[in-house]
Design brief:
elongated; 37% helix; four-stranded antiparallel beta sheet; 8 strands; 224 residues; 2 domains; alpha+beta
Length: 224
């Protein structure tokens, strides 16, 4: 009886060995050996193995490219500090770290605007806003001072010459109605800026109530 059991066990081991080696058909995938694994590769020519330092730099570059600059504002008038505090509380609710945003205060020097406006007529204002989007231009709506509102600001500069140079260099040929104006000193404005928001943060910020954020978070406008 013992000899029979030993014989059966030996036979089972021989059969398993033959099966694992592929002698009885296709071997199981866990038993693959070279060159079987190499033959099973799918388009290996498209893979590039990077050195550790290069791979790390590539990952960091990809992460940096996904970051966006968003800002809310302008907050204008005596209520601006309180409005900024409300906006910061909303950012906390959106799980944006406290060290991720910056308050942008009123400029100490005169500011020259690349400006389009005024557009008190709503259909005309909507048409101009559509033009700016069509040309891929960043802009902000300006609601103060009264002599400029409502209108659109495309860029801010420290001098008239810089503002006019911006128009010559960056304004599309087919876009009309841009001009350079000086922002009156009395129109002190504040903004809340998150310069490096990742995609998840940006999505949560854009979902915040726009009426409490002077129109909501929008792409940052270039400033000197």
């Amino acid at each position: 009886m013992l000899r029979t059991a030993v014989g059966l066990l030996l036979l089972a081991n021989v059969l398993f060995f033959a099966w694992a080696r592929g002698w009885l058909g296709d071997p199981p995938r866990h038993a693959e050996r070279e060159p079987a694994r190499l033959a099973a590769q799918v388009r290996p020519e498209v893979l590039t193995v990077l050195p550790p330092t290069t791979a790390t730099a590539a990952v960091q570059a990809a992460r940096a490219a996904a970051l966006v600059c968003l800002e809310a504002g302008p907050f204008v008038g005596e209520s601006a500090p309180d409005d900024l505090s409300v906006a910061e509380a909303l950012l906390v609710q959106a799980q944006v770290p406290a060290n991720a945003w910056t308050r942008i205060g009123p400029p100490a020097a005169p500011v020259w605007l690349v400006y389009a406006g005024r557009y008190p007529d709503a259909p005309l204002r909507s048409a101009r806003e559509e033009d700016l989007r069509k040309y891929g231009l960043s802009y902000e709506r300006i609601d103060a001072p009264a002599e400029l509102a409502p209108g659109f600001v495309l860029s801010r500069h420290g001098s008239r010459d810089d503002a006019e140079a911006w128009i010559k260099a960056r304004a599309p040929a087919g876009l009309r109605g841009l001009r350079v104006v000086q922002l009156p000193a009395s129109a002190a404005t504040y903004r809340l800026r998150v310069p490096r928001a990742d995609s998840d943060q940006a999505e949560r910020m854009r979902a915040l109530p726009a009426d409490l954020l002077a129109g909501g978070f929008k792409p940052c406008v270039a400033r000197p």
